[in-house]
Amino acid sequence: MTQRLETVQLINAYASGYFPMPEPKTEEIQWYFPDPRAVIPLDGFHCSKSLTKKINQGIFSMTLDQDFEGVMHGCANRKETWINEEFLRAYSELHRLGFAHSIEIWRAKKLVGGVYGVSIGAAFFAESKFHVETDASKVALYYLVQELNRRGFSLLEVQFLTPHLARLGAKSIPAEQYLGQLKKAVSRPQKW
């Protein structure tokens, strides 16, 4: 039986440096606190020449919070995923309450990419991204960083460092350093 993720529990967990994922076979909720932790410095996003060119071509358009569940479903649409029905329910509730947000990337009125995550104070915790067209998830991250900078956020957490995220400017920092940044960020009364 899948455990229920409660809103207050999720907000407190993220604010303390934890995030949930279900165990693949049993769907039992596990709480993770990686050390080191991956972050994308908001002044350090690497936008390659080819990505800049694609953005400047105007083939994609971006919206905020227009299809949160569509982005979650896009992220879940893969062979192996932790985004089960309980995660869809719980994060949709966080979204309804103003604690979870999405960036949607469109091409010809079709959702082709996006990223979603949790927002507390001046911290944004990117949960997952997806694309059905080349570079659409990178474009989503680009716009997420732009939006976070515009709104005065100070922390973008991306959980685990992957080669893909490293190419976009992500880096690993020790958990102790992450907790220091997290404490400052979540204590700032920042609105999405």
Helicity level, as a percent range?
25-40%
Helix-strand makeup class: alpha+beta
Please tell me the CATH architecture by its name.
3-Layer(aba) Sandwich
Rg, Cα atoms, Å: 16 Å
Q: Main β-sheet, in a few words?
A: 7 strands, mixed
Number of helices: 7
The fold-level CATH name is Aminopeptidase
Strand order of the main beta sheet, please?
4-5-6-7-8-3-9
- Strand share of the residues? 25-35%
The low-pLDDT segments are none
The structural domain count equals 1
- Output mean pLDDT: 94
> What would CATH call the class?
Alpha Beta
Output the CATH homologous superfamily: Leucyl/phenylalanyl-tRNA-protein transferase, C-terminal domain
What do you see in this structure?
The chain is built from seven helices and nine strands, in the order αβββαβααβββαβαβα. It is of the alpha+beta class. The protein has one domain: Aminopeptidase (3-Layer(aba) Sandwich), CATH 3.40.630.70. The longest helix has 15 residues, at 136-150.
Quick take:
This protein is of the alpha+beta class.
Chart the SSEs and their pairings.
Layout: H1 7-15, E1 19-22, E2 29-32, E3 37-39, H2 49-57, E4 61-64, H3 68-76, H4 85-96, E5 100-107, E6 110-120, E7 123-131, H5 136-150, E8 155-159, H6 163-167, E9 171-173, H7 175-187
Parallel strand pairs: 7-8
Antiparallel strand pairs: 1-2, 3-8, 3-9, 4-5, 5-6, 6-7
